[in-house]
Write a structure and sequence with these properties.
By secondary structure, the chain is an alpha+beta fold. It contains five helices and nine strands.
Length: 218
């Protein structure tokens, strides 16, 4: 009985009840799916960063992601720093499609998490800072810093549980379930460290965030 009274179980129970409410509240209503420009039209320049190359997602991976549109690009900064930008957009989650958490995808690709913590950033165009997830991951001799967040209805969400909560709220109030997961990966350069890569990732986020806000529906 102590287990059943645990905070985690209580939160999970509330989530399931909300999901049930969502199903009956919106299942018969038409969903409002916003018009979104294709991610292929995303700018090739962001501040001092320039597109180096597009890397289309392999068909097998796309079948697992089930995203309605995806972007996977490598940008290069003026000092030669590299930053990967990945955006997976879902216009609706009613049919089972949903953003995949990098917490699951990165280990599945062989990356081991060395550090994990929240990171608050001030970005252009928003009066309040945004909260993101920061990971330091390693695979063999490679090490990278990863920043990611969920974005829906002009809302920036770091946590998976919070993303589910707002999905339910927006589905009921606005008849919308569109969402995107945005991920930035900056490799740790030889002779450098994760702190330097984090600074590079923050600079890239600040440069590219206005374009992301214009690209994704508000």
């Amino acid at each position: 009985m102590t287990f059943l009274r645990g905070k985690y179980v209580l939160a999970l129970t509330v989530l399931l009840l909300l999901q049930g409410t969502l199903y009956y509240a919106v299942a018969l209503r038409a969903e409002d799916i916003p018009a979104v420009a294709p991610l292929s039209a995303f700018p090739a320049e962001a501040g001092s960063w320039r597109l180096y190359k597009d890397f289309p997602i392999e068909k097998e991976i796309q079948e697992i992601l089930k995203a309605d549109d995806s972007l996977n690009r490598l940008y290069v900064g003026p000092d030669g720093s590299a930053a990967w930008l990945s955006i997976n957009f879902f216009k609706s989650q009613r049919s089972g499609q949903a953003p995949h958490s990098p917490k699951n995808c990165l280990p599945g690709a062989g990356w081991e998490a060395l550090e994990s913590d929240p990171l608050t950033l001030e970005v252009p165009g928003r009066s309040e800072p945004i909260l993101t997830n920061r990971y330091v991951v390693a695979r063999g001799n490679e090490k990278s810093v990863v920043l990611y967040w969920y974005q829906s209805r002009n809302r920036i969400i770091a946590g998976e549980f919070s993303a589910k909560f707002w999905l339910i709220a927006d589905s009921i109030k606005y008849h919308r379930s569109d969402s995107a997961v945005v991920k930035i990966v900056v490799p740790v350069r030889p002779g450098s460290d994760a702190d330097a890569a984090t600074k590079t990732a923050i600079d890239f986020v600040k440069s590219v965030f206005p374009a992301i806000s214009r690209q994704l529906p508000s």
